[in-house]
């Protein structure tokens, strides 16, 4: 097996809750989403806490000729208080489904190179989460009877995110092209910065 980073994959999931009642504040929704994530072995995205190999606890898949795989999710929960829409959006990394092949973490070249590639996949998931927060914040009239529009927003952004991840893998040859990887990592970092106003986990919409 080559020790070069060959590929990574990102999966996107959604959990949906609506019309939870008067007591369902944005903080309630956030705690619920974080509790679900923790129970499922998921780690929330955090700019101050990058991924480490010890978090890739899944079993390598023999059917894939890949060095590592990242499984990251976007969860959103919505509650209505009359016409007010309250929601939380959480990007998480699955420790049980993400994996790395033996020998990669200790390889002085492939280890850091592969981990950087995987971190950028996770960062792309956070971009998706921020884009969803922005869309939910700027879309009026979701509550009380138009919550299906939130799912449409999610599905639309999910398609964009999947295409972006595929383009990222193609341009960087799954992280093996150092120059392209550096360009993409910088581009993704700049995009995260540009969406800084939507870095909060929970908010209300008009």
Give your account of this protein's structure.
The protein has 206 residues and is α+β, with helices and mostly antiparallel strands. The chain has one domain. It is 41% helix and 16% strand. It has helices at 26-39, 110-138, 148-172, 178-194; strands spanning 42-44, 68-69, 72-81, 84-94, 99-100, 202-205. The strands form two sheets. Strands 1, 3, 4 and 6 form a four-stranded antiparallel sheet that branches. The radius of gyration is 18 Å and the shape is elongated. Residues 1-23 have low confidence and may be disordered.
Overview in brief:
This protein is α+β, with helices and mostly antiparallel strands and 206 residues long. It is 41% helix and 16% strand. Strand 3 and strand 4 form a beta hairpin.
Order of helices and strands: HEEEEEHHHE
**Mean pLDDT, as a whole number?**
86
Low-confidence stretches: 1-23
Tell me the strand percentage band: 15-25%
Instruction: Work out the helix count.
Output: 4
**Rg, Cα atoms, Å:** 18 Å
Oligomer: single chain
**Helix percentage range:** 40-55%
Largest sheet: 4 strands, antiparallel
What is the overall shape?
A: elongated
Structural class: alpha+beta
Total DSSP E strands: 6
Q: What is the count of structural domains?
A: 1
Alpha carbon gap, first and last residue: 53 Å
């Amino acid at each position: 097996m080559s020790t070069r980073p060959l590929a990574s994959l990102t999966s996107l999931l959604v959990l949906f809750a609506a019309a939870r009642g008067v007591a369902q504040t944005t903080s309630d929704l956030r705690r619920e989403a974080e509790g679900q994530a923790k129970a499922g072995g998921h780690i929330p995205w955090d700019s101050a806490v990058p991924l480490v190999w010890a978090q890739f606890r899944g079993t390598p898949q023999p059917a894939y000729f890949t060095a590592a795989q990242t499984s990251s999710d976007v969860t959103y929960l919505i509650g209505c208080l009359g016409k007010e829409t309250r929601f939380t959006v959480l990007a998480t990394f699955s420790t049980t489904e993400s994996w790395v092949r033996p020998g990669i973490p200790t390889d002085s070249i492939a280890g850091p190179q592969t981990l950087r590639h995987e971190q950028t996949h996770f960062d792309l998931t956070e971009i998706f989460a921020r884009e969803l927060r922005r869309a939910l914040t700027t879309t009026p009239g979701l509550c009380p009877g138009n919550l299906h529009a939130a799912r449409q927003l999610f599905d639309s952004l999910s398609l964009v995110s999947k295409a972006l991840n595929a383009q990222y893998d193609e341009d960087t040859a799954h992280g093996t092209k150092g120059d392209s990887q550096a360009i993409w990592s910088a581009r993704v970092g700049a995009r995260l910065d540009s969406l800084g106003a939507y870095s909060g986990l929970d908010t209300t919409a008009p």
